[in-house]
Specification:
Layout lengths: L1 H22 L7 E12 L2 E13 L7 E4 L3 E6 L5 E6 L1 E5 L4 E11 L5 E10 L4 E4 L3 E4 L5 E4 L3 E4 L5 E3 L2 E4 L12
Antiparallel strand pairs: 1-2, 2-3, 2-4, 3-6, 4-5, 5-7, 6-7, 7-8, 8-9, 8-10, 9-12, 10-11, 11-14, 12-13
């Protein structure tokens, strides 16, 4: 009798999983969040605060992702506690690759007063790298600026910045030039 009960229990569990899979429409999200205020801490310190009006979770798909259809605002705090802000009208985060695609009215403001504007920005979380193939405008803390027509690649803190085709104003401190030239 016990053996029969155990077999029935496991058979029901398998059927439950199949019914659960069938209840989801093809391509439908497994979850939906509204007015999301996600806080990530490390050793008791707030590191990231993500705010979004709507999040669709597609972690049930073969290539899982999260979609932020009504915009996103993210605050990051660096090791010194300085706040950086990223906003976009739309974003999608791919779970397996760690790539985030920010689109439409993307604005990045760093704690060091660097301001970046673009229509699209990719953020590679694993490699701590940001890039775009779209036009962009960036203003650095010293007042210099760069307007690119084709895109750029950069470390996420903008200490390494490689522009593909641009124009702008670069301020140079003559004291640091070799031989005053």
């Amino acid at each position: 009798m016990t053996l029969l009960a155990v077999i029935t229990l496991f058979a029901c569990e398998g059927n439950y999983q199949n019914v659960k899979k069938m209840s989801l429409s093809d391509g439908a999200p497994i979850a939906e969040g509204k007015n999301v205020d996600f806080k990530y801490t490390d050793s008791g310190k707030l590191v990231t605060n993500l705010l979004a009006n709507k999040v669709l979770d597609y972690s049930n798909l073969e290539f899982p992702y999260k979609e932020f259809t009504n915009g996103i605002k993210i605050y990051f705090w660096d090791k010194e506690g300085k706040k950086n802000t990223v906003t976009a009208d739309y974003a999608i985060q791919f779970d397996q690759t760690g790539l985030v695609d920010l689109q439409n009215n993307v604005v990045v403001i760093t704690a060091d007063s660097v301001v970046l504007n673009s229509d699209q920005l990719y953020w590679d979380q694993k490699n701590k790298w940001v890039f775009t193939d779209k036009p962009y405008k960036i203003r650095f803390k010293d007042g210099s600026y760069n307007e690119g027509a084709v895109g750029f690649d950069s470390s996420e803190d903008f200490t390494t910045f490689l522009s593909r085709k641009n124009q702008g104003v670069q301020l140079v401190d003559k004291k640091n030039l070799k031989d005053g030239k």
